[in-house]
Amino acid sequence: MAKYRFLYAVLYIGALAFALAYESKLTFVLFAGVAVLPLVTLLLMVISGLLLKLEVTPDSEYVGKLQDFGISVRVINRFIIPVSPMMIIGTFHDRNGNVIEGRRLVLSTGALRKSEYVFDGYIRCRGEYVLGIERAEIFDLLRIFRFRMRRAPMCTVIVTPRRILLDETSALCTDDYDSSITKISFMESGSFASVRKYEDGDLMKHVHWKLSAKHDELMVKQSEQNLGSSALIITDIHSFSEDNDSDLRSADAAVEAALALTRKIITDGRTAVNIYRTGDGRTDVFSAAKNDDYEKLLSLFSVIPVTEAGKGAETLVPRTAEYLTGNEPLFIITTEMDADTFAAIERAVGSSCGEIRIYLTASRPDAALTAEVNAAKNASVWTIDPDDISLSLRNSMDRSV
């Protein structure tokens, strides 16, 4: 704007000098026109700004990670002259999965018309993102003055973790009462504690066909053991690096692994008790026993934050006490863990749980941690590959302790 103001000042001085040098009505009219023109453009700019409307609309408020979606920016001009030029500064995503702050867009909209601009792309990491226009300014025709819009619309988009499915035939838990032999004998004997309506994710082999035919809808058998048993999942996503992208990547891997285990446990007819930290830093517990619970947990895990370094899984273990009775498997998913942390966890749970399985999403176990885990008869440690979480979990299921 400084350049245009300077050019106008030169024009004003030139018109004044011309009017003084040639004292005539024509030169006076020319000078008056130059002097009044900024006031006219200022007035038109203010009216145009008051009649201008901006809208920001996402394709959906919930989108999957790595899923393409668009943000529509609409400029509605309700004035009889065009809006030109206009500067929009905002936060938008791109086709490389980045969220870029301070993106600039210069645009113009015709008189009594509406213009629409769409930002397409995807986002690489789960979370809650505020996207849209941070600041919008219009200029007068001489670009001497600017008018900042009072309302800069934004929208909130929640990016959900990927849904990872595990093989239905693989055994996840290795405790005695949930072995594959027990399941087979339970189904062959026909004994069961109750039935319920079929839900997405239930195995077809658990369907009670006679009752389903009678009720004209699918009914699923539940064993007495599965009704009362649970598996515990601790999800710890503390910061381990100064690189924010690395923290987000490992946190996403932990969340997606926890959700995959939860879905598998629900499919097997059991309850998955999830323990995690909320946005305000407190520890929360969510029990998932059916597919609706899984969907709620997916929403919760979309926004739980990466916590500060030093708050590891051991700080979440105390909440497990009320759910452990001696048989439940305990899954601990964390970015990293050392031998001292595992020893503290082992002392805390003692013999009140069954198998302990540790999954690391940002590092491999060092020699000290491996030795400590091997010394515990009921524990194992595994590495999660963020690029292939399903394979990492299947490996742990196929080679369980």
Q: Can you walk me through this structure?
A:
The chain is an alpha/beta fold. It folds into 3 domains: 2-43, no CATH class; 52-160, Immunoglobulins (Immunoglobulin-like), CATH 2.60.40; 176-191 and 224-398, 3-Layer(aba) Sandwich (Rossmann fold), CATH 3.40.50.410. Helix content is 33%, strand content 29%. It has helices spanning 2-21, 25-51, 180-189, 209-215, 224-228, 244-267, 291-301, 339-349, 367-375, 389-398; strands at residues 52-58, 62-64, 69-77, 83-93, 99-109, 114-121, 127-139, 146-148, 154-160, 194-197, 219-222, 230-236, 271-277, 283-288, 330-334, 356-360, 379-383. The strands form 4 sheets. Strands 2, 4, 5, 7, 8 and 9 form a 6-stranded mixed sheet that branches. It has a 6-stranded mixed sheet with strand order 14-13-12-15-16-17, with helices on both faces. A 3-stranded antiparallel sheet has the order 1-3-6. Helix 6 (244-267) links the parallel strand 12 (230-236) and strand 13 (271-277). Helix 6 (244-267) runs antiparallel to helix 7 and helix 8 runs parallel beside helix 9 (367-375). The longest helix is centred in the first third of the chain and has 27 residues, at 25-51. The protein is elongated. The protein starts with a helix and ends with a helix. The model is unreliable at 174-191 and 223-228 (pLDDT under 50).
